[in-house]
Amino acid sequence: MSLRSLSSVVRFAPAVLAVALVAPAHADVSKKVIAACKGKMIISTAPIDGSDEKGTIAACKQKGGIKLQGSQNGNDVQEWTFNYTAFLSKTGGSSLKLEFYDGDKYSADRTLTGIDPKDPVLEGDITIDEDEGLTKGKTYTLKLVGKVKGKEATISSAVVTMN
């Protein structure tokens, strides 16, 4: 089973959309990890090591989320680049949306396309910046949202603080 169903790197400069990159993964995640992490998302600075069952399960059960260190881009705008590994509670969609919420308030999103609808694990990279609605120092709930039986549902989630 492929860990990297999709690797989407999307960069925004003020009013400029750059690139979406799709690439297959080379690591496998065990059924034990998929079952233990179902519905959760791991946010990190690099792809996870799917062969480390114990470490992967501990990472998806971590409370409080991760603090991501941002940097100024060429336009003096704070941006954050991170890796996500989502263990889907439901499969079947070829297009999903990664949404950022500050409490109940929607802040930003990223559409993910080209997803293998049979794969229970989705992994990729995102770059997002302040111009898209995020604020340095705030904590966001990331929700991976898709259509399940015709209705929009959260199929994976995590918490992240943008530093």
Brief summary:
The chain is 9% helix and 44% strand. It is mainly beta.
Describe this protein's structure.
Strand 7 and strand 8 form a beta hairpin. The strands form three sheets. Strands 4-11-10-7-8 form a five-stranded mixed β-sheet, with no helix packed on it. The chain is mainly β and 163 residues long. Helix 1 runs parallel beside helix 2. The N terminus is likely disordered. The protein has two helices and eleven strands; from the N terminus they run ββαβαββββββββ. 29% of the residues are buried. The N and C termini lie far apart (34 Å). It has a single domain, classed as Sandwich (Immunoglobulin-like).
Major sheet size, sense and barrel closure: 5 strands, mixed
User: How many helices?
Assistant: 2
Termini gap: 34 Å
Which range does the strand content fall in? Answer: 35-45%
- In the predicted model, the low-confidence regions spanning at least 5 consecutive residues are 1-27
Largest sheet, order of strands side by side? 4-11-10-7-8
Shape: globular
Topology:
Elements: E1 12-13, E2 16-17, H1 31-37, E3 41-44, H2 53-60, E4 66-68, E5 71-72, E6 78-87, E7 95-102, E8 105-113, E9 121-129, E10 139-148, E11 151-162
Parallel strand pairs: 4-11
Antiparallel strand pairs: 1-2, 3-6, 5-6, 6-9, 7-8, 7-10, 10-11
